[in-house]
Automatic annotation (TrEMBL):
This is VOC family protein. InterPro entries: Anthracycline_SecMetBiosynth, Glyas_Bleomycin-R_OHBP_Dase, Glyas_Fos-R_dOase_dom, VOC_core. SUPFAM superfamilies: Glyoxalase/Bleomycin resistance protein/Dihydroxybiphenyl dioxygenase. Gene3D superfamilies: 2,3-Dihydroxybiphenyl 1,2-Dioxygenase, domain 1 (3.10.180.10).
Length: 245
């Protein structure tokens, strides 16, 4: 095991990611080749959102889930840990966000919910049961960062700073997410949203691999305060970033 998961994910720490895809089998081929993930081990279909767990070195790192409604976006979602999903969903609502999917148990694995911030950026909540979250992170082929692209960065600071104060500013805090203005990277008309980042050893090489596998480049490699990043779109339309640091 890469780390002590139970102690790693305090409230407001990104603890899981999943992709809602039209074709999970195609997603397994794409991400298995790109990141070296394996699939299909016992228990995989118990991941949050009833998806299939992706593993690296035998540890869970993400899940791929079938889209239940073709009208829903094909997207990667980041989940933030909480000891009480219902209470946190109430705080999201009180702070001006919306509750998209009310807290719902996922077998004995935990409780999940989908919410938005006041500008409409979607993110998940995860109250752990048997599944605390990532078995590996911060290494090649695993989650490394989540960046919020917002229109009103001051409002985003107020919302997330109030919601996840300890994870962002508490003693010893090492945040795994940040924020930027939409227009710094994307077209100004792009809706506010989170971009899930996966760590890679070579950003340019990862982009070439993604294109070879049927993906396309959304934003070519660029430098950030947290590393070299490129935003790509997989072979089904889900956007994510690769991060070299």
């Amino acid at each position: 095991m890469a780390e002590n998961r139970a102690s790693a994910y305090g409230e407001g720490v990104p603890c899981w990611v999943d992709a809602q895809l039209p074709d999970v089998a195609a997603g397994k081929r794409f991400y298995g080749d790109l990141f070296g993930w394996t699939f299909g081990e016992p228990g995989d279909r118990e991941a949050p959102g009833a998806g299939v767990w992706a593993r690296l070195g035998g540890e869970p790192v993400a899940s791929l889930a079938p889209k239940r409604d073709g009208r829903m976006p094909t997207v990667w979602t980041v989940y933030f840990a909480t000891p009480d999903a219902e209470a946190l969903a109430d705080r999201v609502w009180a702070a001006g966000g919306q509750v998209v999917t009310a807290p719902l148990p996922v077998a004995d694995l935990g409780v999940t919910a989908l919410v938005t911030d006041p500008e409409g950026a979607v993110f998940g909540l995860w109250q752990p049961g048997r599944h605390p979250g990532f078995g590996r992170r911060h290494e090649p082929g695993t989650f490394a960062w989540a960046e919020l692209y917002a229109r009103d960065t001051e409002a985003a600071d107020d919302f997330y700073g109030g919601l996840f104060h300890d994870a962002l500013f508490g003693p010893g805090a090492e945040p795994d997410f940040g924020r930027a203005a939409v227009g710094e990277v994307f077209a100004a008309e792009m809706p506010p949203h989170f971009v899930v980042h996966f760590r890679v050893e070579d950003c340019a090489a990862a982009v070439r691999s993604a294109v070879r596998l049927g993906g396309r480049v959304q934003v070519p490699p660029f430098e950030t305060s947290y590393g070299k990043v490129a935003v790509v779109i997989d072979n089904q339309g889900a956007s994510f970033a690769v991060l070299q640091r």
